[in-house]
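Teaching note: in complex prediction, the entire set of molecules is handled at once rather than each chain in isolation. The prompt given to students was simply: 'Predict the structure of this complex.' The entities are:
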Amino acid sequence: MQERKFEFIVIGGSAGSIGVAIQMIPALSGRFQVPILFVLHRNASSSSGFLSDILQPRTPLRIKEAEEKEKICPGTVYVAPADYHLLVETDFTFSLDASEKVHYSRPSIDVTFESLAAHYGEKLLGILLTGANADGARGMAEIARAGGLTIAQNPATAEVPTMPQAAINTGMVHHVFSTSEIISFLNDLVD
Amino acid sequence: MQEPELRIVDEELEKLLKEMARLYRYDFTAYSRESLKRRINRVLLLKKIPSIAELHYQVTTDPDFFAYLVEQITVNVTEMFRNPAFFHTLRQEVFPILAQEPFIRIWHAGCSTGEEVYSLAILLQEANLLNRTLLYGTDLNPHVLQQAKSGLFHVANLKTYSENYLQSGGTSSLSDYYTVRYNQALFSDELRQRMVFSVHNLVSDQSFNEFNLILCRNVLIYFNRDLQDRVFNLFTESLPAGGILALGAKETLVHSTSKDAYTYLNREQKIWMKSGSASYAGKKI
Ligand SMILES: C[S@@+](CC[C@H](N)C(=O)[O-])C[C@H]1O[C@@H](n2cnc3c(N)ncnc32)[C@H](O)[C@@H]1O
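The expected output is the structure of the full assembly:
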């Protein structure tokens, strides 16, 4: 159904989003080549190891924490580390930044979305999931402004509607989907 | 506020960094660009600077503005007992090694406003090691060092710091180490007497002493691989065999040319020991 080719997919979420990630990742086609990055708010001391521990046995895609200076690779699901902002450099490597929290959050979804939008433009797909704050709304708008596509989780079916609703309110969200609609949309990108 | 904000683009940034290095000998050309861009965009907004040309003009003609920009583009965010598990490991695994020494020198490279230095001093005090330790805190930003020297920290953060302190294995109460005046906590002289703060730039300055332990946390993430290598060489020169190097939670030696000079002391907490036989021979863990 989709004509466009994305080169990067970024998924942000806060309260309730870990559950969505646990549902989504094993449901993704194993032939997924486009790199996917999850930026999820969580406790500063939590390691992203637990997501890959739970999910790696259930997907052929490689799941790992994004590391500083790491080259972005196809077929990989990255998770942003806790307590750092995650940025993307012009040479398509990740970099970390421990500066002030944004929306009481580090990693901030806005920060990463804006950085990705600047480098990937219309090749970027941004997805915003459930959450209890307004982080991500600005980043979604920025992705859309740069020509990328934006999808918000349907607030009616999200565990906490605030975050996707804030993004929808900017008028810059292209699609509003349930979790299962997001999954089929993504799998339809693989041909 | 619908107008798009002014943002610096790659070429303008390169030009600005080169000018700064040429005019002031502060060289940020080996720093990761995206973080610099965010910091500079923030200054454009805060100072209501109308154009990049104006920014360039101010930087090149006004040394005070340049000094302000340097303070702004380096990230100074820090806290006491940041990553308590790290401090807990220092206490458990590194202090016994330090305790073998008659005199202990510690270097906090990129210490910012000093929270890390005070944290370590407190734990050393509780291990009865502080009276024979000197802690050197260095940073390129003189402004943060001034703050560090003062021993004053805002009370708003003390609750978090006390929790971090206890999780780090602190044996009394953090409040034993400070007195509150208005909204500031003044940390004790006993701690401050063991500290030396001075300006040192990891990009251009040399090794200035030999240390038993070097901490450089959340500084290297802003440097490219070449500059990281330079800094690791500097640390290797500044450590004896058996000396210890501790990095931030997301920083590593493994991509650097220096890695062969070290072995892991604690992989999870990013702590290495310089290899070779010398004073610590036979005390390897
Ligand atoms: C985020 S703070 C880290 C503070 C503390 N080590 C911690 O982990 O909480 C980074 C510090 O590195 C300093 N810094 C950046 N570049 C430097 C350089 N070239 N030489 C010395 N210090 C530098 C900055 O001024 C800043 O204070």
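Point out the following to students. The first helix of chain A runs from residue 17 to 27. The domain at 8-188 of chain A is CATH 3.40.50.180 (Rossmann fold).
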